[in-house]
Amino acid sequence: MAANVTLPVWAFLLLVLLAAAAVLEWFLLPSVRWFFRQRTDRLLDELGRRLRLEIQPFQRTRRAVLVDRLIFDPKVQEAAEAHARERGLPRELVMATVRRYAREIVPAFNAYLYFRFGYWAGRRIAQMLYRVRMGYSDEEGLAAIPRGSTVVFVMNHRSNMDYVIVGYLAADRAALSYAVGEWARIWPLRALIRSMGAYFVRRHSRDALYRRVLERYVCMATEGGVTQAVYPEGGLSRNGGLREPKFGLLDYMLRGFDPEGERDLVFVPVGVNYDRTLEDRTLLLDAERETPRPAPARGTAIRTVFRFVVHNLALMARNRWHRFGYACVNFGPPISMRDYCREKGLDFRRLPRDRRRACVEALGTDLMAAVGRVVPVLPVALVATVLLENARKPVSELGLKARVHALIVRLEAGGAHVYVPRSDRDYAVAVGLRMLALRRLVEKTDGLYVAREAELPLLRYYANSIAHLLPADAAATGARCE
Predict the structure, then answer these.
(1) How many Cβ atoms sit within 10 Å of the Cβ of residue 425?
(2) Can you tell me the distance from the alpha carbon of 41 to that of 242, in angstroms, rounded to the nearest whole number?
(3) CATH number of 264's domain
């Protein structure tokens, strides 16, 4: 029996769409997932042999699983119950808020994207903008870190390029999980950064429930051995010097640390510096305002970036563009918390709240001092420092070199790590002077150089990056744990 079946066009199209969806779900998508899973597994095997700090099982766990673990963590549940009672809210509503916080915080680390795309893009961007250099590195100390330890890179925060530069230079050591501020929570940057293993932090949130969810995630990641990178300053330096640190994330990491446990917690001080910080003038404007201003509209920020890019593309088209000098990173001696706690007789888990805060502050102050000691000294900072010492007195290039050489001797005598390009101090002065002249921060008249009056704040910004390294400023007092 043969008969024609007539269908409306809409019904036929619907059947075609359903058939295509079935083919996609049952045949094509599994093949694509299998293809990428095979490539990811091969990459992870390769990284396991190459990386000094292995990718941990925690990072390879599916994001949905980590979100559920965080939501149903006993301490998060306890905080949710307390929040519901205090506010008189239904528990279901509070748990929906907890789920939103957890999904916002938990990253979705993708090793293939991190090391194939992220590393390639980071290297290209970094090398296009700067002459990137690894300065000092305590290789012996880094090699002695016990296998399986949780390693946390503690860094000063000079620029948003820090994420790119440090991630690129540390790529042979580990995949870094950054704590990233609200600036990165815009589409499509949010998904990309989350896939690189970063977790978002609302730095100024006073919501106790949110802080508890964040605390428990940081504890979970630390206990899971995730290699992290944190900026205790909490934001970019507005005046070029080191900012007063904040110790919230450090406190979260230490609350669950067991000094007698199998996994040590090791902090590595990292110093970053640039011959030119991309945001320098914007940061100075923020520092000069007496009252805080609201965050700029997204359109304003985009227009500012667009103008900067167009200006530099125009310079490239006229063959007048230069890279922004040197960017240098130093890795200092690791600090083992197992050894620290044994030496001080501490167990942060058992300390009363006030004493724990005091001890965290004392440790954090020591860590920031260690970070300050490994901040690289670069050509622009050297020349800016010398020009400010004689701000209104013209100086010859020969006289400038003599004073910079004397400054280098002072800094090295105090234990500072001075990066001298090509191991040639005269060349270092020439490079620093050229960078300042290209930006019209200095004027040359009859062979003599003098700082421009209007640009003294910017010169001071760069001089401040190494001011704490000068021997006269070395006698700072730290917090005490009593």
Answers:
(1) 17
(2) 41
(3) 3.40.1130.10
